[in-house]
Write a structure and sequence with these properties.
The strands form 2 sheets. The chain has a 5-stranded parallel sheet with strand order 3-2-1-4-5, sandwiched between helices. A two-stranded antiparallel ribbon has the order 6-7. The radius of gyration is 28 Å and the shape is elongated. The protein is an alpha/beta fold.
Amino acid sequence: MRKRPKKSSPSRKPKPRRAEGSPLKPRGKPRARAYYPAFIDLGGRPCVVVGGGRVAERKVSALLEAGARVTVVSPALTRGLSRKGSAGEIRHRARRFRPSDLGGVFLVIAATDSEEENTRISQAASEAGVPLVNVVDMPEHCGFIVPATVKRGPLTIAVSTSGASPAMARAIREELEGHYGPAFGKYLATLRRKREAALREMEDPEERERFLKSLVSEGVLDALRRGKRPGGPGKKKK
């Protein structure tokens, strides 16, 4: 009995090999960005805000509060920014943005009302090697994003949803504002002095730790949440 010849399988084209070091194509949905939370010392550092509207004004105020040296690039300014310029608090370049505005800059915020212009600023900042870049409402063009914050003197509480829902971040911030009132900021000024004195005068580290923990006990925090000075007199009963 003669054997039938085996059928040859159809030839398959070899899969192209990925060049070494070339990026893999992402599969499925893009992964959400992960951010590293940090507080940055901007004291004396040159920062640029491009835009002269209300959003830019809020950004400028926050940078000035952090001690930054701020230059604003915009043909026009809000009244608040104009006053800051007249008072010498900021430097104003009354024109449209130029890439040369980014020379030696540590941080730039693009806050114009044009997405196209903001994207151009982000690209220019990347090419110029600016360490920190933020584009308002366009996290895909940001090197950092700005959280919603509650500030009470030295106390800063930051809330971020990693860009998923700025509205949620604001809602949480507003809730925190009700729990952490001005009393916390005032008490922290006292805490700073007491901590510095304890570090100087209390040699036993365990005793010092117990003392410092007693200054932030649950009773102390509860009093502060009610707007009371810890250890101070409460409301008198009628």
